[in-house]
Every structure is written in C-alpha cells, then in structure tokens.
Amino acid sequence: MPTPVALRFVTVEFRILGPLQVLRDGQAVEPGSPKQRALLLNLLVHHGQVVPRDRLIEDLWAGSPPSTGLGVLQNYVSQLRRALGADVVVTRGPGYALEVEPGDVDSVRFERLVGEARAALERGDPAGAVDLVRRALGLWRGPALADVAGEPFAQAEIGRLHELRAAVTEFELEAELSAGRHREVIGRFEALLAEHPLRERLWWLLMLALYRAGRQADALRAYQKARGLLRDELGLDPGAPLRDL
Predict the structure, then answer these.
(1) In angstroms, rounded to a whole number, what is the distance separating the alpha carbons of residues 130 and 134?
(2) Under DSSP, is residue 104 helix (H, G, I), strand (E, B) or coil?
(3) Phi-psi bin for 26: left (phi > 0), alpha (psi -120 to 50), beta?
C-alpha cells in the first residue's frame, strides 16, 4: 500500500506597514515591477473584496491606460500568480481578489493587537496593554504603503493607518501613565505633541503626567500653551475635558 503523501500548506505573508515585503514560507518573494507591486498593493488595500478589472486598470495608469491595458493587467496577474501561488491571486467575476487569511497582512495584525491592548487596559492590566501595543507598533517599518504613497487609490488607507498609528502611540503612553510611569513619559508626550500639536487628548495626558510628577506649575503652563495653539490655529477654546483637568 503506497505511503500517503503529506499535504503541504504554503503560507504567504504581506507587510505593508513600510515598503512592501512578501514572504512565502518565510522566504522573501520579489513581486516584480513597480506596476506589479502597485497591483498587489491595490488588492491588499481591498483584501477580502473583489476589485474589478476596469478599476485596476484605471488605478494603475492614473486614468490614462494604454489601449493594451487589459492584456497588460492579465500579464501582471499571471506573474503574481507564479510568484505567490495560483490560489492566492484569484479571479472572481469581473475582477481579481487575494485569497489570504486576515492575519497574513501586517496591518490587520496591527489592528488586532491594538484591540487586545485596549481590552487589557480596560480589565486593569496596564503592563499587559503596554506589551501588546509595543508589539503592534513594532510591526511598522516606515510609512504605510510606501511604494504607492502618491497613488490616489492608496490615499484613504494611508491616512487611516497613519491616524491609527498616532492614536495607538498616544494609547501606549496612556497605558504607561496608568502603570505609574508618569515621569518617564513626559518627554515622549512632549515629542509627540511637537508632531501633533492640536491633539487635545495629548495635552490632557501631558498635563496629567506633569501633575502626577509634582509639576503643577508646568501642567498649568502646558494648558496655557494648548489654549493658545487651539485659538490661533483653529479659533477654538479647549474642550471641557482639558478645561476641567
């Protein structure tokens, strides 16, 4: 009786939190030309969805596709299938889709870890929350979707991911503050505010850290600075949480 052949399941991992990286069974795979990379990133932005061929052609050539656009697109898809596997890039109705597990995409893992970190903080485990959020932020290797930073199809997702990263960095510091590390986080709050000076929540957290570190006068000065920035830049007074603190 012949020996049964063991089934081999291939894993493909996609990293988009920085320059595109693709790993197949742990080995780096080169997705190909810039247009092929853009095609793969378009499918990754919409992973779990079918992207119509017409839309892909429009996106790849910024609204001015060549007359051979459909044939070129089909050739790019064939090359991606050879690199990644025919079961990864699949035809669905009028377009193409990626057949990947959500956890195979680093941006999805990032959001999952953030959700776990928030749950840890809610159940009173700030140290666990800090560990999880550090793992989440450790997935970032540079600007999200860096290979297609100027492409219109990527702008909404780039903006969403970078806003989430800023919020998560803020959340990490909040968890550190909850763990009693108020003196250690003051400098990091100040550095983050240099990048995001109009985030009221950051000013609230900085003031709280300064107060808990025994620096009440500095906390009041931080409030005055926040109030001045908000009035000058937005024509607004600080919101109730900041005023109440």
Answers:
(1) 6
(2) helix
(3) left
Residues 222, 229: contact at Cβ < 8 Å? no
> Please, what is the Cα angle at 36 between 35 and 39, to 5 degrees?
90
Q: Which burial class, exposed, middle or buried, applies to 168 when counting CB atoms under 10 A from its CB (0-12, 13-18, 19+)?
A: buried
Residue linked to tokens 């064939």: 78
Distance CA 56, CA 60 (A): 6
Token pair of 223, please?
């409030």
127 contacts: CB under 8 Å, gap ≥ 6:
179
**Structure tokens that stand for 221 in this block:** 């000065």
Give the C-alpha separation, 226 to 232, whole Å.
10
| Phi, psi (rounded to 5 degrees) for 92 | -135, 110
**Gap between the Cα atoms of 184 and 193, Å rounded:** 16
Instruction: Tell me how far CA of residue 149 lies from CA of 17, 36, 66, 158, in angstroms.
Output: 12, 15, 22, 8
Query: For residues 16 and 25, what is the distance between their CA atoms, to the nearest angstrom?
Result: 17
- pLDDT, tens digit, for every residue of 129-141? 889 999 999 999 9
| Mean pLDDT value of segment 76-91 | 92
pTM of the model: 0.82
- Nearest C-alpha neighbor of 105 from the set 33, 9, 12: 12
- In tens, the pLDDT along 28-51 reads 998 888 999 999 999 999 988 999
Q: What distance lies between CA 149 and its chain's CA centroid?
A: 13
C-beta atoms surrounding 227 within 10 Å: 16
Rounded to an integer, what distance in angstroms lies between the CA atom of residue 194 and that of residue 145?
Answer: 24
